[in-house]
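COURSE: Structural Biology Practicum
ASSIGNMENT: Worksheet 4, Part C
STUDENT ID: 0417
INSTRUCTIONS: Below are two proteins. For each, the amino acid sequence is given first, followed by its structure token string. Answer the questions at the end about the second protein only.

PROTEIN I
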Amino acid sequence: VRRVPALIAVSILYSLAVFVGFLLLVVPGFIVSVWWVFALPVVVTQRLGPIASMGYSRDLVRGHWWRTAVLLTIVVIVMLVVYTAIGLFTGILAAFGGGALTPGEVPWYVDFVVGPVMAAVVTPFFYSMFLSILYDLQVRREGGDLAERIAATA
């Protein structure tokens, strides 16, 4: 709860920076969004302030921008594929499940069963992948993997 003001500040700063970046020609918006994508979790995990967390996020991504952008894109594509597959299956089930549905009508089980199940499966997957990318960047930056490898050989 003590981190909420910092989270709100980072959210506002990140949103403004990405918005201005997209206004400038789209490309700066993508660059800034990848630089500062880890600012929110860093506020909580590293207990940094809003500006410091944005700087820390940028330092993590520095030198790994393309790799980070590709990994985040892959995670989003996997999420879209899962959502599409579940939506397609649900649509087929609704079409052949009987009952007359008017166009635009959603069966009750989509709202009360399929939607929450999709959220319960996909949301933790997204955040675990997101935090895995963050941890990987932290290990690369701080050299923890190298220290472990050296200790393992001794």
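PROTEIN II
(use this one for the questions)
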Amino acid sequence: IEAARNAYKVVIGSFLNIDVLCDWLVKQERNVLLLCSGWKNRFNLEDSLYAGAVTHELLKRTEDIKLGDGCLALQYLYEMAKDDPMKFLSHASHKERMVKLNLKRDIRYCLIPNTAPVIPVLEGKYLVKLEA
């Protein structure tokens, strides 16, 4: 979030708000940069899976979209995982850390689409609900 602080607008997405976020992004008619938080400055499978899902959903909503190779690759990753994302993520490099932290239920919950149909947006140093 801090790395994007000077962007036009910083919004937060997850599977929990994917539809409302993608609908809003299409209406913006602006370039979109997806920043994945990763883990300790390394590629992170679950965040990348979400970026692929966003790409997939944006393509369903509009044909007027140009993808960079990164988004295209992550869309393919998502298409491989979409039928059972929990199983797909069971192969993640830091799955042991997640198990030790007893986060299996939390991860399963975070993969449920559209359970929190709000968009957090950065205003100053706070995240607030985006108003339509």
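ANSWER KEY EXCERPT:
Q1: The longest strand covers residues 120-123.
Q2: Strands lie at 120-123, 126-129.
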